[in-house]
Amino acid sequence: MLDAHRLAVLAEVAHAGSIARAAERLSFTPSAVSQQLAKLERDVGARLLHRHARGVTLTPVGVALLGHAETVVGELRTAERTVRALLGAEPAQLTVGTFASAGMTLVPAALADFRRDHPAVALRLLDLEPPDGYGLVSSRDLDLLITHRYPGAPLPDPRGLTRTLLRSERFRLILPAGHPKARVRRLTLRALADEDWISGSPGVPNRGCLDELADAAGVALRVAYETRDYQVVLALVEAGLGIAFVPEGVLGRVGPARIEVRDAADARPAREIFVVHHRRPGPLVTEMVALLGR
């Protein structure tokens, strides 16, 4: 039978991305972590990690074992929290993971309402870009994950967790204030094909969405500025450097005189926002999900 402690070390190393960072989190020496991993590899009969200058990556066997390790660690942490709560030895805590734009628009009000109703609960917020975070929910490093899917992107395997659609958020086309094409009655991607666009780099979800929209419209769009940060996108558009699609929620912080907000007639993208948690969520998780859905 595999040792649960060694599985926990594997999960920590995978989440940290390096043996040194995992050792720091576990209050071990790097040598002790390496020894535990070596023993686990002997138990399994296969190599679990590739070591390189920037840290470690999992082998295919390591990836397969990680999902089980996260589940084991999650169950052990659930048992420990249950006992400590019954003994009154540990204050309640809620850890939420979220992507950047939801952390700016969706999460603050929900956290503020939660804090008002539960002043004794310790709150913790982690910044995670999708599809990251599912394993952290499995291992109970996260109680709740807020994540998204862009059009055309696959959804990750929920790994036995509960994933619920929270809302669908449409994207708006934004142009610099006074842009001549903002006054065109029927604006299409073809009419905007000669513009400089602002989007993420190849492989980033919003860039994949933009490329898919361009393919569907039969045009090639020129991405001149690459960033996944929507605050940077807004600043670049305000400066007159290009145009972009952005989630509607981020527009609340922008003065209407600084940009033009339109919809493209042939492209109306929207992304789905989900919450992910264990199948048997505690009352604090259930309440936070309800607050996020308001």
Q: What this model shows, in words?
A:
The N and C termini lie far apart (46 Å). Helix content is 40%, strand content 22%. The protein has 10 helices and 11 strands. The chain is α/β, with parallel strands linked by helices and 294 residues long. The strands form 3 sheets. Strands 3, 4, 5, 6, 9, 10 and 11 form a 7-stranded mixed beta sheet that branches. It is globular and about 65 Å long. Strand 7, helix 8 and strand 8 form a beta-alpha-beta unit.
Strand content: 15-25%
Shape: globular
Computed over alpha carbons, the radius of gyration is: 22 Å
The percent range for helix content is 40-55%
Tally of helical segments? 10
| Biggest β-sheet description | 7 strands, mixed
How confident is the prediction overall: mean pLDDT?
90
Listing every helix as H and every strand as E from the N terminus to the C terminus, the arrangement reads: HHHEEHEHHEHEEEHEHEEEH
Low-confidence segments, given as residue ranges, are none
Count of DSSP strands: 11
Distance between the termini: 46 Å
Protein structure class: alpha/beta
